[in-house]
């Protein structure tokens, strides 16, 4: 077919209502594996240094995404006619001027000792070692430093044996109880499992804690009581009778810019174009961390979440090719890894009227695990915000990729609380119908090995097509998805 004639025919298919099926097929064919692969290998490259929130690397990746959205024909929908919505990311960290000693031994911060969270403290008090913290009494520990070894004793959380969760679970189990009894400071000493996690703690806890104005995420575990984590080899030292902790701990605060990238495809219906189907993901990851000397230190986050970031670009191209009745809004959220801060900010400060957002289709990690497996969260009560939206998504899966859906991770009883750990959550809290697409965690999750070559481009493409089929149906229906009567999340 001559190129001019081909252009005319394609144009007719996309504009004449007599050909809706062919037009949609042409649009979905715009979601191409070769485009997704090219973009994935760029965004998850070392060039962006792991896209850590609040850094120039996150901003650089955001500019790249905005430029790709512009090239694809998406219009800016951020602040002041741009593709960007900036917000302040507040960081509090332990100062390098802090000093910690036990007896005559000085401890080097982030090597010999982890300060679990930022705090201001001046401690010069005796250490009481507890073989079993459950036996602690106020009479014994008030005004003293409590030391104990990590242990899963008395903890029923099924995640406690996962080494990356072990430290946080044990600390949260005992720290508040001991502080309530009057402990002046608390020292946790590694056992074998905690020692495995210790190098990771030195690289994560040294960042401190993050916050945005008005957010309730990432509150401190304790208020003013320092929590220290020592390596296993210090056990004999802290058990010695008569030992004293001398610690002067200072914290410092900084404000960094983070950003949401926001773009749209205008709908073709004069009335419904003022409503939006929101597609979302996050572009940030964990940046550079020196967990093991001499090994890869860049957390490129190919699956988490470059996979979704490039899928949204492909979905956007499909909407540009065939605009639906409603408009489509695309948001690449910043600072998700810090605590869902970009989505929280946008849900509180949307660039379109909040009531005009009819549904949120969010995804996080869509390129790993079995090729025919997937999860759709927001399907099972109490997470089901809209039966209408759920049915549309399930029908789209039946028409499209035909994934076998894992429903276990959507249950309120699932120990990982996966539903609450991605960017649809702040919107669901605002009673906006929302779904969460994922291929779920895997062995490379939050490691430097989460690289582009480990992922299935075909699977990412199928997820993108599934989200597109869901979104285009929502965008073309006369009625918006209805909120589930009595919808209320368990937390």
TrEMBL record:
<dbReference type="GO" id="GO:0006508">
    <property type="term" value="P:proteolysis"/>
</dbReference>
<keyword id="KW-0862">Zinc</keyword>
<keyword id="KW-0378">Hydrolase</keyword>
<dbReference type="GO" id="GO:0004177">
    <property type="term" value="F:aminopeptidase activity"/>
</dbReference>
<keyword id="KW-0479">Metal-binding</keyword>
<keyword id="KW-0732">Signal</keyword>
<dbReference type="InterPro" id="IPR007484">
    <property type="entry name" value="Peptidase_M28"/>
</dbReference>
<feature type="domain" description="Peptidase M28">
    <location>
        <begin position="260"/>
        <end position="466"/>
    </location>
</feature>
<keyword id="KW-0031">Aminopeptidase</keyword>
<dbReference type="Pfam" id="PF04389">
    <property type="entry name" value="Peptidase_M28"/>
</dbReference>
<keyword id="KW-0645">Protease</keyword>
<dbReference type="GO" id="GO:0008235">
    <property type="term" value="F:metalloexopeptidase activity"/>
</dbReference>
<dbReference type="InterPro" id="IPR045175">
    <property type="entry name" value="M28_fam"/>
</dbReference>
<dbReference type="GO" id="GO:0046872">
    <property type="term" value="F:metal ion binding"/>
</dbReference>
<protein>
    <submittedName>
        <fullName>M28 family peptidase</fullName>
    </submittedName>
</protein>
